Model the fold of this input.
Amino acid sequence: MTIENTHLQTIKELKSAILASRYRVAVLANKEMLGLYFAVGKLISEKAHQEKWGAKALEILSNDLQNELPGLRGFSASNIKKMRIFYETWEDCFTIGSLPSNQFGEAQNSENQIIVIGSMVSNQFAIEFQKVGFSHHFEISSKTKTLEERIFYIQKIASEFWSITTLRHHLKSNLFRQQGTLPNNFAKVITQDDLRAKALMAFKDEYLLDFINIEDPEEENERLIENEIVRNIKKFLLSLGTDFAFIANQYRFILDDIEYFVDLLFYNRKMQCLVAFDLKKGKFIPEYLGKMNFYLSALDEMVKLPHENPSVGIILCKEKNNKVVEFSFRDVNKAMGVSTYKTVNELPKEYKGLLPDVEILKKLMD
Done:
């Protein structure tokens, strides 16, 4: 090995050691902060109930803390309220206190240790729990209703290192409910149990494409939707989830001197296969499967590498009838699923009836 190569290897090892140390420090700091916030939340929750605190109590408390500790950050009235919510969300699963001394007989440095109580969560989950930042925790506490949901999102954040933006997107698109619900024929055509399980978890029944903003719904068509997706490819990848890599839109292949184009082509690293998306602006009809079956056969024959698994196809349409999808899949031998999409133009149910119809507004403006 040359001196230059030895030097580069030394730099690489030093960089790795520094980054690993920074990560451990960050994890320990986050663990300590969560313990403190949980303890504060516990104290505030108990005091508020015992002493019947009024609406201004937290503001007074925050101001008094600032007077005692000038320059204190992170303890505004709103943040203290979040700490209380954080505690009350998890009070049935965790408590706060000092852990027993460790195997070397040394006392723990902090009394604010989050400790598992009961059997609702495991010690392993407690480790994952303390790797997640407080901002993530508050998003989960305020936007989920069940313990199962909270555990799902925390484990995803801990294992996949989601940013707060990614978490908010998946909460908004209801990833917990969407995973594994895609109408598909995977059970019949994917024979490997592990690959079938990965495929089921990789796709959703509905995708939230809230970055698509088509002013006139009558102008909505497949190419317009495709262009919006390509223009916002990072956001679309966020909708898909982890392990997807974008290859091309209008992916071209030639068969018997005729050109064919796949709307969107991706690669999924976990499944080790190509994934083709065919975009449809209307309701699903059985004929769409024949076209997708043709695309997948061509991709497997002409594009797929020898070590890769057979391609998977997703038909992304505006709406579908699951019974029609089920019957359509019966004699199809390629792995496919049918998903729907929702765009920013769709009015939330709670607002329907409160705002005038788009067509009425158009007439008023003419």
